[in-house]
Amino acid sequence: MNYRISVLTSIYKSSEFLFDFLLDAKRQSIFNQIEFLLLDANEDDADYKIIEPFLFHKNFKYKKIGKCNVYEAWNIGIELSSAPILTNWNTDDRRSYNSLDTQTSYLEQNTDVDMCYGNLKISNNPNEIFEHCNSNKYWPCYEGTLENQLKHNSPHCLPAWRKDVHEKFGKFNTNYFCAADYDMWFRILQGGGKLKYIRDIVGVYYENPISISRNPTNLTKAIKEIEKIRKVYSL
Question: What is the pLDDT of residue 12?
Fold first, then answer.
């Protein structure tokens, strides 16, 4: 099967969100053209028990990778992926039913663009699907320039990008615990790559109070990490 896009999903203690995430994946308009890489970083099988019934769909590809951080998982996923376009998709976020078609088609039709991203609704309700989300809060998005990226991480949680950017600019820096994607987009921009903001609303970002970057115990560390990256690329 020649997949159009590969989805990288790191799975770690995701039972609260996992079943609804898999249902959301199944309803994608181009479901059969998507390779879903389910990268299990758990030491137990609690999440696998939720995933197992879905594995009769051959494009759900499960791999037990052992305990690691999210960026180590994504890097493993890059190596396993077979499609020319990649995206990440966290289990607590939700997509519009046609978002992967929209973003994949945009990159297929605009070969000079390395990565694209769209608007996101912001929800405080777990497992709220796109069509049921009536939030009037949106993640701010700006055009993909180095100057704008220094102000704000517009691509945020649901961008799509070409796999070959990792041949040009390397993989995610696993020394970062919450902002290696932010760093990766900077590397693409600094290297002459092109990031494009499309106007479509592509999904729902759940402001998970215990996520890696929003957990109060990690918040100060997360802010310092982001500021460190900004300093590196503002020089």
Answer: 96
Distance of alpha carbon 50 from alpha carbon 15, whole angstroms = 7
Is residue 100 within 8 Å of 87, Cβ to Cβ?
yes
77's tokens: 């996923």
Residue 1 has a pLDDT of: 82
Structure confidence by residue, pLDDT tens digits, 75-102: 999 999 999 999 999 999 999 999 999 9
Bridge partners of 138, per DSSP, are 121
Provide the angle, in degrees to the nearest 10, between the axes of the packed helices 219-234 and 180-190: 10
Ranges in the chain, pLDDT < 50: none
Write a three-state SS string for the chain: CCCCEEEEEEECCCHHHHHHHHHHHHCCCCHHHEEEEEEECCCCCHHHHHHHHHCCCCCEEEEECCCCCHHHHHHHHHHHCCCCEEEECCCCCEECCCHHHHHHHHHHHCCCCCEEEEEEEEECCCCCCHHHCCCCCECCCCCECHHHHHHCCCCCCCCEEECCHHHHHCCCCCCCCCCHHHHHHHHHHHCCCCEEEEEEEEEEEECCCCCCCCCCCCHHHHHHHHHHHHHHHHC
The CA distances from residue 102 to 9, 38, 144, 207, 225, in Å, are 19, 22, 18, 24, 32
